[in-house]
Design a protein that fits this description.
This protein has 186 residues and is of the alpha+beta class. The chain is built from eight helices and four strands. It has a four-stranded mixed β-sheet, sandwiched between helices. Strand 3 and strand 4 form a beta hairpin. The N and C termini lie far apart (47 Å).
């Protein structure tokens, strides 16, 4: 994996790499990935949980107790549950979103896939996702796992990030470009 200058991404990649190795040894990569996706969905849906993992005000004991309770309630057990507890005890919860993303990338590479982050103005149908995967596969030369997020501010179109490439066909960007061009003319 490429080295970056961000200390968070370095921490995230090291933790994700260690978790992946443990999951591979236990033959439970798919379960760990599903549990991490479940935790990520909870994180995106809860401002309080986001505050818990990002705030330095909470002690490591408080964070560990809260994460243990959340993991138990959400039935995140095994390696993923233990992983979240260890991360909380080590005061690294702030890097969990990066760890989840890094784990997903490592798992995809191990399956012979690459990942693409897709931002859409509206929810994509299964047929649209299948068509998009096929188009991206022709560009990448291998299977592509897509992670779709919805951002209504795009108005229409897609923003696709795959590795170091970014394709922005959003209506928002096109309108901003037109606005800029009109300012230059006027």
């Amino acid at each position: 994996m490429a080295q970056t200058s961000s200390p968070i991404s370095g921490v995230a990649e090291r933790y994700a790499g260690s978790l992946f190795e443990l999951a591979r040894q236990a033959n439970s990569i798919a379960k760990v990935e599903a549990d991490l996706n479940s935790f990520e969905a909870m994180l995106e849906g809860s401002a309080d949980l986001t505050r818990l993992i990002n705030s330095p005000v909470f002690s490591s004991e408080d964070q560990a107790k809260a994460i243990a309770a959340i993991a138990d309630k959400a039935k995140i057990t095994g390696l993923a549950g233990n992983f979240l507890r260890v991360v909380a005890q080590n005061r690294r919860l702030f890097a969990v979103p990066g760890m989840i993303k890094a784990f997903r990338q490592i798992a995809a590479e191990a399956r012979g896939e690459t990942t693409a982050d897709v931002t859409s103005a509206h929810e994509l149908t299964a047929a649209q996702q299948t068509e998009l995967k096929a188009a991206l596969k022709s560009v990448a030369g291998k299977d592509v796992a897509i992670i779709v997020t919805v951002d209504p501010s795009l108005l229409g179109g897609l923003v696709v990030k795959m590795g170091s490439r970014q394709i922005d066909t959003s209506l928002k960007t096109k309108l901003n470009s037109l606005k800029l061009a009109l300012k230059e003319v006027g």
